[in-house]
């Protein structure tokens, strides 16, 4: 790959996992209570995709990374204060809802339109990255649909490892059942890779990267296009928190032998 | 009148995965509840006739198949083309399929081509007033929703462990072959690789999920680390207890953070909000701690017990049936001895 890759990462925000979430009904359908007030983080698997993209771009001269994000732009701006310090990318913003109750088909259409409109994007060198699933809707279908919109029929889901071979082919390891990997070889870009956790730690904050990124982040936020994304055709009949709370029996006064015997009896029961 | 299509792929040996028989059960149930609905079966694989014969008595009016060497492996381009052809041929309005890695990759693309919609991780199906109602979870198993939708074809991808596996007598199915126009395929499937671990620790069909938390890698009561002891105890228990191994996020993250780790533990073992939420009849958590977001890995475990030195452990309080306040090293050693005897 002498020219490098054009790597587009699709990723957005989700509520911080430590926040308490509660559903509410709104005139436009289900939503989260105080959704815009909840602290947000980059969707975990999309984050892994972004870090893998930056790592690949670093190892492959001539490569460039874009982050295409659909979400409320005020929330994305907050997110950029941390994410933009981690890896180098150019931001593309779609101003719209990022909640879990939107339809992935509509999200995919909006994302594909934004990717297709990136100036200077060479589709023959395109690697479309994203998370294998979101921590909000958790459908695991958006990246494949974006790929279809863009005419990419080499797709991989639950990717933990990508190796660019000497001949330019891509060796891909995807998670499959039973803790195993499916190993595939793809004859180079374009391809869609929806990442699981990959193998990289979260990069530390680097203020210098942040300063460079912010030159493009702020203009991108200012010229964000509104994206009309919802869930047309869907009727939510109810969304609720699981109500069951178990009556936990706390066993403090048994010896290890007695506990072990009780556990074994339970296992065999 | 809904036209229901049960869609599945065969395994490398030509059999149907268990998750497929469960999805068939869901499809049959849906067809029975929807007035005037019809049921058809569609299969993808290298050789589909044996699998079709196994489900011949499922009351399907038609059996369709895309068969051939290209379709014996799990690959997006060939699978999406096969599914597209089968759904077009069947004229299905509702497609019921199992959640497998192969279909999770390929079905969304086929849905896009067909102009349909898709619901994944379906955890419940019902019919009320002639309308299909789907239950699924949002925000990583933190809230559950029920919905219906108007668009067709509507793909319902059913999670494993939700429905009982379909049971019926084998027969001989008259399978209609469906032709597929393949695009240029640039991906070659090389094979399957197991993680570089001492043993196979993830067993989705195991009766027990054993969850190991970060406490196993911390200093114990003698002020020392006992990683080797922890590894031996856990692996011994997995073998003797026929258990699948899950882990908290904090434990698997230690490997990328350069801390002491259990050598066989990887991100594949992680359960919880950013991991998997497996379905097993029983679960035993050891040395785990954390609040609701971390404990959602338990969501679909029916009977739950935990061992922890902290009686106020957020992982167990209100979420487990029994919390043993004890040293997991000591207890699991005894458990292994009892299981050996």
Explained architecture:
The complex is a heterodimer of chains A (269) and B (341). Chain A has helices spanning 44-59, 73-83, 104-116, 142-149, 207-222, 256-268, and strands at 6-10, 13-15, 23-26, 29-32, 40-42, 64-71, 90-95, 126-131, 155-164, 170-176, 180-186, 191-195, 225-226, 234-240, 249-251. Chain A has 269 residues and is α/β, with parallel strands linked by helices. Chain A has one domain (6-226): HUPs (Rossmann fold), CATH 3.40.50. Chain B has eight helices and 15 strands. In chain B, the strands form two sheets. A nine-stranded mixed beta sheet of chain B has the order 7-6-5-8-4-1-2-3-9, with helices on both faces. A five-stranded parallel beta sheet of chain B has the order 12-11-13-14-15. In chain B, strand 5 (117-128) and strand 6 form a beta hairpin. In chain B, helix 3 (76-90) crosses helix 4 (101-114) and helix 5 (227-241) packs parallel to helix 8 (328-340). Chains A and B meet through helix 3, helix 4, strand 9, strand 10 and strand 11 of A and helix 3, helix 4, strand 5, strand 6 and strand 7 of B. Strand 11 of chain A pairs antiparallel with strand 10 of chain B, so a sheet runs across the interface.
List the helices and strands and how they pair.
The complex is a heterodimer of chains A (269) and B (341).
Chain A: E1 6-10, E2 13-15, E3 23-26, E4 29-32, E5 40-42, H1 44-59, E6 64-71, H2 73-83, E7 90-95, H3 104-116, E8 126-131, H4 142-149, E9 155-164, E10 170-176, E11 180-186, E12 191-195, H5 207-222, E13 225-226, E14 234-240, E15 249-251, H6 256-268
Parallel strand pairs in A: 1-6, 1-8, 6-7, 7-13, 8-12, 9-12
Antiparallel strand pairs in A: 2-5, 3-4, 9-10, 10-11
Chain B: E1 3-9, H1 18-33, E2 38-45, H2 49-54, E3 62-67, H3 76-90, E4 94-98, H4 101-114, E5 117-128, E6 131-138, E7 143-149, E8 154-158, E9 175-177, E10 187-193, E11 208-212, H5 227-241, E12 243-247, H6 249-256, E13 280-286, H7 292-295, E14 301-308, E15 322-325, H8 328-340
Parallel strand pairs in B: 1-2, 1-4, 2-3, 3-9, 4-8, 5-8, 11-12, 11-13, 13-14, 14-15
Antiparallel strand pairs in B: 5-6, 6-7
Helix pairs in contact in B: 3-4, 5-8
